[in-house]
Amino acid sequence: MAADGGRRQTRIQIEKREAIREAALDVFSAHGFRGATLDQIAEAAGLSKPNLLYYYEGKEAIHAELLERLLDTWLDPLREMDAQGDPLTELRGYVQRKLEAARDYPRESRLFANEIIQGAPRLIDELRGPLRELVDEKAAVLRGWMEAGRIARMDPRHLIFAIWAITQHYADFDAQVCAVLGSEDEARFHDAAATIEVLLMRGLAPR
Fold first, then answer.
1. Domains, the chain, ordered by start
2. What percent of the chain has pLDDT over 90?
């Protein structure tokens, strides 16, 4: 909660809060919630600790705001799956969007992973609410395609989980990917998309 009590913020205040969020994202994604300190966040933001506390009551408040923003980033690629589209095209597009998120938002992905590894203490209500509702909605779409014989039958929710597992690897384990490939060339995301597409398209082809 901001120390301004919800009053309209000035441009400087908005910029300071954004700087704090950016710094906190670096610190939380590197050290997790428990390992992160306000001193680390303040230093990364170029602020004194008292100055930081003018904008946020503590690291819990910063972390909660980051997680709230993160969930939308996490859910958007799945929201875009169109029930009226071609199943394989829609799934291919979903994989591509998830890989783009892994490429563009690696810190957010690690923040999310750290929260989940800890048992999601600060995010569990969102997982049981909006996330579960969206997965149920898209699982129903996938089930409809399966019943119509447009893609192979399988558990639709576990299909979604499998896509999450494969694509998020390229955010959370990117250092390992680059080390094994011997390169940090962004072509790795294109190559990953092509490989995942072969796996999915062959596995999902109607039998």
1. 11-57 (1.10.10.60), 69-204 (1.10.357.10)
2. 69
